[in-house]
Design a protein that fits this description.
Layout lengths: L1 E4 L5 E6 L2 E7 L12 E4 L2 E6 L5 H7 L12 E5 L5 H10 L4 E6 L2 H13 L3 E5 L15 E6 L6 H12 E12 H4 L5 H13 L3 E8 L7 E8 L2
Parallel strand pairs: 6-7, 6-9, 7-8, 9-10
Antiparallel strand pairs: 1-2, 2-3, 3-5, 4-5, 10-12, 11-12
Helix pairs in contact: 4-6
Length: 227
């Protein structure tokens, strides 16, 4: 299997037959948390990163041109769920970086607590992303805000959290789920409206990546925050 590092440091691409695989360097060698494969590579270990389980992986495979998440960054992750993508972000920011991983569901947060015991750069926070004031004393200023929540007001949630936690000129990854916002409108119309809300609130659009065929009616939007 041919493997090489992409232009995004810490993210690798491999070819297995006709299938392209995305990988990161495992920060917990010998241990995996989901159903990923572990592959030896030049004295280290890589983890396969499925685009079907991670919208960030899907965006990269679909041609994402900019990756603001890098080693040493502070990331606020809203909607961390069971922590799949969160663990790959953990690999990218490495031990010098840190992730505040927030979700409102106790069941998934319990799983993330177990992961954080092995990965010291992840801090699980049980809270409602609609109410950033309730966790303002638990989160520091972030270089990158990543939001993946299935709520109608996801754009407003992003704006509120950016105003409180995102550094000036910081970046936001916004996974827009059209069907979570309005099932009566065409997805592209929903995407345009949600992005429009952000452009009116101190954000600049950098990229918009459709996540087909990995995720239906989803786009990943990358924005820069310029208050």
């Amino acid at each position: 299997m041919q493997t090489k590092e992409t232009r995004f440091k810490g993210i690798f691409l491999a070819q297995r037959g006709r299938k392209r695989l995305l990988l990161t360097k495992n920060q917990t060698p010998g241990r995996k948390f989901f159903d990923e494969d572990l592959i030896a590579y030049q004295g280290s270990e890589l983890r396969t990163w499925s685009p079907n389980r991670s919208k960030l992986s899907a965006a990269i495979l679909n041609g994402l041109k900019n990756m603001p998440i890098k080693e040493g960054d502070i990331v606020l992750y809203l909607g961390s769920s069971y922590g799949t993508t969160c663990t790959y972000v953990s690999d990218i920011v490495k031990e010098k970086g840190f992730i505040f991983a927030l979700d409102f569901a106790p069941r998934v947060m319990r799983e993330l607590v177990f992961i954080s015991q092995a990965r010291n750069n992840i801090c699980p926070i049980l809270a409602d992303a609609n109410r950033p004031g309730t966790y303002k004393d638990k989160v520091s200023k972030a270089d990158v805000l990543y939001i993946d929540v299935a709520q109608r007001n996801q754009a407003e949630i992003l704006i509120k959290n950016a105003d409180m936690f995102l550094k000036p000129k910081g970046y936001a990854f916004f996974a827009i789920k059209a069907r979570s916002v309005d099932v009566t409108k065409k997805p592209e119309k929903v995407f345009q409206e949600e992005i429009g809300k952000l452009l009116k609130n101190n954000f600049k659009l950098i990229e918009k990546i459709n996540l087909r065929p990995y995720q239906k009616d989803h786009v990943m939007v990358l924005l820069q925050y310029k208050p």
